[in-house]
């Protein structure tokens, strides 16, 4: 099995010079080589030194010297050493690494949209404004909220914007309040957001099902609580079934319910946060709505909210005149101000809208059902070998722990690295923190039964290896160009650019 899967996914045969010292392979420069050839000068020569004055370089720049084909081969080769969703399953939990349909790319490249300059007068930009307006309407419908801004450039940026809205509203009520409640299962960006917005973070313990402990919540919410930041489904892939009660408890004390909507892949077409008491939330277009991410493209983290937060939305806000034309409103005295240049990452808007329109309501609902089905299929096929710390039904992702394997000295990180040998991107390792040694798996709806079965086979085979030949797992990966990196040094002293 092991060799078969490796064969299936390995990108061509390993050439001897590629497996040796990585440094030697990488360094291709040698003096005097050029990737261009200029014709003889047929105009009067200029004295560059005096023309440039002080700006004239005294020494030539230390640039690599290569021929054109060496450059092409270098980058093409490097690109094949990467893993990508276009090569196979990418089960990175919480990240929703679904397939990005090619038609999105086609639509985003339509000249009139791709070339629309942000300074173009509104009268000449009605097409792209229509796209923005339609996407806003779709997202408002999907979330059940009243209004939206598309400005934020990522999920974390959306959180920041959403909490700024909450803060501005509390201020308008006379008191910005002091603290924000965050469950212990939350994504790290949640506490970071609260702190950056000037709030104290108060930790909220999860109950045995992985949800909010209502009694603890009731004790902790007071007149100084600005909001609860809740991910639903939570980062262990569990739907918060008491969400209505949670909203009521917060609202009774004048606090708001913020929803981290990064996990909307489990809800679209099924349940709407606006209907279950959420006041403000962000979406990750680059997760749920299929725009490239993860070293791919820019993100987009729209913030949807209820009517009472509308006056505080970032400027400008899009509106439609009676004649149907679209315009930007900059005159909004209560606005929190701009959070990004221009209108947001418009290329992402086009892709997300193309995705939404291509699927339609039924397609989106089917997508959600398939995402949940796939996660539960993986869960059922692996739960006899991997420990399942929370038995609550899974939504779009499933979280195991390495408890059984750890007894043999094998940790979640070792299993993840061994998975690379089987031709898969690792799942999310050691997150959420409430599950010690977590294996967080999100297959997404994109994967076929065949691909899921290959993944399941790989995971089962690794569990067997842990029993029979743990060293093989501990020293993985064996099929990559480089094996285990020194992760601490890589994080502390990253080498991010080429030096001569
Ligand atoms: C991905 C994610 C975020 C942050 O989104 P970015 O676009 O990476 O900033 C926040 N919360 C959860 C639960 C996420 O999965």
What descriptive keywords fit this protein?
seven-stranded mixed β-sheet, Aspartate Aminotransferase, domain 1, alpha/beta, binds pyridoxal-5'-phosphate, 10% strand, 500 residues, three-stranded antiparallel β-sheet, 2 domains, Aspartate Aminotransferase, domain 2
Describe this structure in words.
- The protein is of the alpha/beta class.
- The protein has 2 domains: 102-357, Aspartate Aminotransferase, domain 2 (3-Layer(aba) Sandwich), CATH 3.40.640.10; 369-492, Aspartate Aminotransferase, domain 1, CATH 3.90.1150.10.
- Helices cover 39% and strands 10% of the residues.
- The chain has helices at 2-9, 16-19, 22-26, 48-52, 68-80, 102-108, 111-114, 126-143, 155-172, 189-196, 214-220, 243-252, 285-288, 346-382, 403-406, 412-421, 449-468, 470-474, 487-492; strands at residues 147-149, 179-183, 200-204, 225-231, 256-261, 280-283, 303-305, 317-320, 326-329, 398-401, 428-429, 438-441.
- Strands 1-7-6-5-4-2-3 form a 7-stranded mixed β-sheet, sandwiched between helices.
- β2 (179-183), α10 (189-196) and β3 (200-204) form a beta-alpha-beta unit.
- The longest helix is centred in the C-terminal third of the chain and has 37 residues, at 346-382.
- The chain is globular, with a radius of gyration of 26 Å.
- The two termini are 44 Å apart.
- The relative contact order is 0.14.
- The model is unreliable at 1-24 (pLDDT under 50).
């Amino acid at each position: 099995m092991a060799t078969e899967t490796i064969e299936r996914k390995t990108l061509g045969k390993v050439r001897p010079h590629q497996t040796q010292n990585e440094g030697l392979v990488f360094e291709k420069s040698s003096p005097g080589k050029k990737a261009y050839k200029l014709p003889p000068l047929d105009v009067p020569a200029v004295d560059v030194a005096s023309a440039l004055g002080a700006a004239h370089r005294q020494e030539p720049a230390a640039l690599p010297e290569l021929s054109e084909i060496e450059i092409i081969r270098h980058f093409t080769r490097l690109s094949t050493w990467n893993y990508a969703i276009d090569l196979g399953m990418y089960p990175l939990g919480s990240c929703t690494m679904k397939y990005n349909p090619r038609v999105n790319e086609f639509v985003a490249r339509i000249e009139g949209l791709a070339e629309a300059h942000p300074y173009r007068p509104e009268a000449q930009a009605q097409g792209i404004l229509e796209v923005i307006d339609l996407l806003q309407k779709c997202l408002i419908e999907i979330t059940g909220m009243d209004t939206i801004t598309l400005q934020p450039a990522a999920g974390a940026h959306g959180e920041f914007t959403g909490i700024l809205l909450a803060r501005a509203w509390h201020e308008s009520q006379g008191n910005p309040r002091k603290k924000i409640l965050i469950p212990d299962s939350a994504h790290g960006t949640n506490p970071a957001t609260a702190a950056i917005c000037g709030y104290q973070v108060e930790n909220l313990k999860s109950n045995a099902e992985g949800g909010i402990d209502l009694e603890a919540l009731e004790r902790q919410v007071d007149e100084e609580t600005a909001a609860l930041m809740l991910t639903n489904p939570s980062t262990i892939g569990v739907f918060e079934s008491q969400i209505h009660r949670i909203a009521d408890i917060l609202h009774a004390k004048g606090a708001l319910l913020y929803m981290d909507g990064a996990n909307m892949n489990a809800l679209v077409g099924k349940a709407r946060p606006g209907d279950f008491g959420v006041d403000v939330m962000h979406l990750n277009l680059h997760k749920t709505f299929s725009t490239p991410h993860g070293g791919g493209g820019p993100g987009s983290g729209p913030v949807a909210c209820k009517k009472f937060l509308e006056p505080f939305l970032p400027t400008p806000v899009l509106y439609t005149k009676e004649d149907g034309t679209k315009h930007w409103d900059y005159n909004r005295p209560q606005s929190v101000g701009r959070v990004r240049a221009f209108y947001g990452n418009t290329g992402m808007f086009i892709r997300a809208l193309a995705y939404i329109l291509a699927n339609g309501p039924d397609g989106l609902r089917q997508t959600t059902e398939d995402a949940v089905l796939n996660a539960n299929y993986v869960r059922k096929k692996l739960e006899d070998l991997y420990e399942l710390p929370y038995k609550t039904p899974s939504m779009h992702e499933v979280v195991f722990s390495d408890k059984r394997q750890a007894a043999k000295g094998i940790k979640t990180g070792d299993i993840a690295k061994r998975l690379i040998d089987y031709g898969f991107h690792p799942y999310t390792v050691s997150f959420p923190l409430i599950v010690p040694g977590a294996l967080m798996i999100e297959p997404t709806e994109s994967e076929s039964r065949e691909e899921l079965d290959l993944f399941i086979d790989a995971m089962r085979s690794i569990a067997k290896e842990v029993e029979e030949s743990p060293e093989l797992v501990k020293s993985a990966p064996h099929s990559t160009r480089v094996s285990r990196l020194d992760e601490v040094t890589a994080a502390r002293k990253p080498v991010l650019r080429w030096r001569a």
